[in-house]
Design brief:
The protein is an alpha/beta fold. The protein is about 45% helix and about 10% strand. The chain has a single domain, classed as Aldolase class I (TIM Barrel). The protein contains 12 helices and 8 strands.
């Protein structure tokens, strides 16, 4: 698994009846890799993992693996109500051809460090696959502190990366201070990507990339090369779109943007509903401005 570069947290394409559209999903996976993304993460929060059954998640992995072949690695997000199910999902993903796992704390229950460490350690140890710990305290209630991440890294040989989504860019330097180069660090919030790269992150688990892959890769490359003038110019254009990734309805918003640019449908599974009212008006205004001023790359 390559935990560097722009790695889309892909959306899960749905038909009008809300079943998974595997043909559209395969085409979307290929588009991401054709656009120079370096890997794929399936069934994360943006992939509506909470509404997908166990078997559906594995079917998504199979489709992604078959679609991109040996051109790029595929990882599966591992999030479950129980440790037993999370471990089973990790093993099934390995058998299905996934090359990495994005490991989340359990849904609903927020325990102390002893409990959360036991949970994620069990998932990481379940397979030999390369693992990335996902730290998102706002969404999941569990905050993996830098010292705790270092403890996991010391004990889990196949923990290779951390997706940092605390919203505090100082965490990147803090993780680097206690882990050195032991772990790859990836930005998990779209509207912190340039700041995160400047702080030392080497990868981006991206959301709006699902609709704007070329701009996402270009932005990451500018920032990584230290081309600040070009990075900040493109960031200024992209930022209103990137902020759509950081609000509660980010799934509906990103899927709607995809549909508007001809690369998907806005269908989401309940309890999410498709955009309407002021949410839809805001999205339309943001996208209209972005398309009007879209830079030539």
């Amino acid at each position: 698994m390559n935990w560097k570069g722009v790695i889309p947290a892909i959306t899960t394409n749905l038909k009008a009846d809300l079943s998974v559209d595997h043909a559209a999903l395969a085409a979307h996976c290929r588009w991401m890799i054709d656009s120079s993304c370096t890997g794929l993460v399936c069934c994360g929060s943006l992939g509506e993992a909470q509404t997908l059954a166990f078997e559906e998640k594995i079917a998504v992995v199979c489709t992604a693996v078959e679609a991109v072949g040996d051109r790029a690695p595929v990882a599966l997000g591992i999030a479950s109500l129980t440790t037993v199910e999370a471990v089973a999902l990790a093993k099934a993903a390995h058998a299905a051809g996934a090359q990495g796992l994005m490991v989340l704390p359990p849904y609903v229950y927020t325990g102390n460090w002893r409990e959360m460490k036991a949970h994620v350690s069990a998932v990481i140890a379940a397979t030999p696959l390369s693992c990335m710990l996902y730290n998102n305290p706002v969404a999941y209630g569990t905050d993996f502190l830098p010292e705790q991440i270092a403890e996991l890294a010391a004990e889990c040989a196949n923990l290779h990366a951390v997706k940092e989504s605390s919203g505090d860019v100082r965490r990147i330097t803090a993780i680097r201070a206690v882990c050195g180069r032991r772990l790859d660090i990836l930005v998990g919030m779209d509207d912190a990507i340039v700041e995160g790269v400047y702080a030392g992150a080497g990868g981006w688990i991206a959301g709006l990339v699902n609709a704007f892959p070329e701009e996402s890769v270009e932005l990451f490359d500018y920032a990584s090369r230290g081309d600040k003038a070009r990075a900040m110019a493109l960031y200024a254009w992209f930022l209103p779109l990137l902020k759509l990734d950081t609000v509660p309805k980010f799934v509906q918003l990103i899927k709607w943007v995809q549909a508007e640019v001809g690369r998907g449908t806005p269908h989401v599974r309940p309890p999410r509903l498709e955009l309407d009212g002021t949410d839809l008006e805001h999205a339309r205004a943001v996208l209209a401005r972005a398309l009007k001023d879209r830079p030539k790359l």
